[in-house]
Amino acid sequence: MPYRSIPRMVIKRLPLYLRILDNLIKRDVEIVSSRSLSEITGFSAEQIRKDFAYFGAFGTRGSGYNTEYLRERILTIIGLNRQTSVIIVGMGHLGTAISRYNIAKNPYINIVGLFDRDPQVIGQKIFDLEVKDAKQLKDFITEAKIKVAIVTVPAECAQEVVDELAEGGVTAILNMAPVRLQVPKGVHIHYADLTIEIHSLIYYSSETERDIEELEAL
User: Is the pTM for the entire model greater than 0.85?
Assistant: First the structure.
């Protein structure tokens, strides 16, 4: 089956499996079963086996998976077997935090460009990487052949930025702005809205209070 036809949720689970395998390898665990992965992830063992089956046979039934081999296969499937160059547009608090973490902690991607429009931010450095003027964005992504970008600009600026990224040749975008955007065919965009995640989380924090109120109303 072509990778393009793999369900999106399967693709989104692969990085989680990769993180688990990284940790298992650090602990010198050589073999892991789908049952063990199920206990760690919360997904069923059947679901995990089905996810892997989209990409071929990774292990022997009853014997589990070799952690090193499985990790290498997942790296290749995602495209992390080679370091990917990524840019970040919008160097406010969120963009700065994301860039600091990924420059220091993420071995699979290479942050190569930071961009902003604010004259007070342009020229600042995060580690050894200098924030560039957003006016240089299109030329930079074209010359460096950038395919992946993270957008952390205000909502009202996001569509303009994404349009410029797409025109320059970026084909994969993570949008952190709280707005839905239009992208041309062939450009994939993922959304991460932290405010929505926090608000939906509060529902669960209020669940006990609602239960008590319902009992008192009986």
Answer: no
**Tokens representing 6?**
């793999």
Residue 124: which region, alpha, beta or left (left: phi > 0; alpha: psi -120 to 50)? beta
Q: Per CATH, which fold does 3-78 belong to?
A: Arc Repressor Mutant, subunit A (1.10.10)
- Start-end of CATH 3.40.50.720 domains in the chain: 84-197
Task: Identify which of 93, 195, 106 has the alpha carbon closest to the alpha carbon of residue 148.
Answer: 106
Does 212 have pLDDT greater than 60?
no
**Tokens (6 digits) for 160:** 């303009």
Among the residue ranges 5-9, 55-59, 67-71, 179-183, the one predicted with the least confidence is 55-59
Instruction: Answer yes or no: CATH 1.10.760.10 is held by domain 84-197.
Output: no
Cβ–Cβ < 8 Å for 90, 153: yes
